[in-house]
């Protein structure tokens, strides 16, 4: 059996930007393999990891744009997959879906940009001009612009602790379950529940009692 080297060079496709033609062309055909199987296969065939990029990069890109705006999104997604590739031997292979794991890595990277994230929320709260909406289609931008609560909600998000904001937005924008959020952040599910409860109370208070689950999608 050929030994697996301790550290392989990162496949070139993972260090390139979104919609790289070489990556897209190589993996146009649908692949029924589970994420865990792809990661396991990449231990012996490192280039297979690009399939995971092709499968999940777009949804992670949208999530990063919503939190940081478009300027940082490509770099954050590229770094996410680079780190994931380097850590893939530690993946919990009993988990078929790797998206929560990738969200966790992305969230840690977003944490290094937390000042930029908070500045974006404060700018929206102050001016009413959403720097994130411009990255979406006109229909979404119009819905954002029509929201009467967006400024107060943005101000409330800026005031949340990092852990509370991460939990709230992974659930509201990442569409993760409580269990998946716990996996992504590496915390007990009880911690997820308590952080989410605190975040919802704070946001509901900032919105004058409105249900935050009804309005988080409006930012």
β-strand amount: under 5%
Helix content: 55-70%
Average predicted confidence as pLDDT: 77
| SSE sequence, one letter per element | HHHHHHHHHHHHH
Report the count of strand segments: 0
Main sheet specs: none
Q: Give me the number of helical elements.
A: 13
User: Could you list the spans in which at least 5 consecutive residues all have pLDDT below 50?
Assistant: 1-6, 15-27, 131-146, 212-219
Assign an overall shape.
globular
Radius of gyration: 19 Å
Cα separation of the termini: 53 Å
* Structural class category: mainly alpha
Task: Put the structure in a nutshell.
By secondary structure, the protein is mostly helical.
Please describe what this structure looks like.
With about 220 residues, the protein is mostly helical. About 65% of the residues lie in helices and about 0% in strands. It is built from 13 helices and no strands. The relative contact order is 0.10. Mean pLDDT is about 75; it is low at about 1-5, about 15-25, about 130-145 and about 210-219.
């Amino acid at each position: 059996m050929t030994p697996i080297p301790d550290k392989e060079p990162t496949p070139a496709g993972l260090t390139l930007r979104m919609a790289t033609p070489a990556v897209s062309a190589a993996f146009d055909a649908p692949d029924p393999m589970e994420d865990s199987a792809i990661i396991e296969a990449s231990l012996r065939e490192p280039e297979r990891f690009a399939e995971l990029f092709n499968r999940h990069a777009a949804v992670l890109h949208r999530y990063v744009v919503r939190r940081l705006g478009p300027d940082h999104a490509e770099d954050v997604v590229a770094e996410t997959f680079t780190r994931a590739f380097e850590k893939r031997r530690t993946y919990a292979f009993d988990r078929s879906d790797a998206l929560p794991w990738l969200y966790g890595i992305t969230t840690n990277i977003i944490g290094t940009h937390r000042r930029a994230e908070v500045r974006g929320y404060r700018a929206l709260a102050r001016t009413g001009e959403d720097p994130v909406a411009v990255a979406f289609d006109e229909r979404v931008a119009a819905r954002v612009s029509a929201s009467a609560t967006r400024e107060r909600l943005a101000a409330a998000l800026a005031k949340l602790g990092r852990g509370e904001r991460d939990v709230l937005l992974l659930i509201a924008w990442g569409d993760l379950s409580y269990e998946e959020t716990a996996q992504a952040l590496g915390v007990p599910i009880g911690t997820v529940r308590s952080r989410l409860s605190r975040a919802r109370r704070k946001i509901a208070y900032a919105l004058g009692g409105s249900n935050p689950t009804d309005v988080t999608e409006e930012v």
